[in-house]
Amino acid sequence: MRALTIRQPWAAAITYADKRVENRVWPTSYRGPVLIHAGKQMDRRRGPMVAAVVRGLQLDLGAVLAVARITDCHADDGECTPWSTTGNFHFVLDEVTALPLPIPWDGTQGLWTPSAVLVDRVREQLEGEGTARVLREEAGPC
Question: How far apart are CA 70 and CA 28, in angstroms?
Fold first, then answer.
């Protein structure tokens, strides 16, 4: 399992809306479960699409908000989603499941390995067959 720190409001758009691609300047070969961690800094660049999504939401900072699955990473092809950024690599996300309560946690930049304590705290909040599937590790490079 990995975790990915994402600035707000983008972390909220993944967790609570239909943003299913994360834009990065670097690629990843990792496929599998990932914790969506909201960084401690806000990204002040917002377009009308993200403003409409996050209006009225509390934008938690420095906390794990959701679990998802990275199913693909590809270079910009110009046809991905309305959330895609030209010239970036697109981490394709699926099975996004919001945590009932955000878990305050210090993260780091990039794709990082969460501690067993953090993973256990996430598992405590999520029960059920669908969630068990998204948390299941899959063999693959990181």
Answer: 10
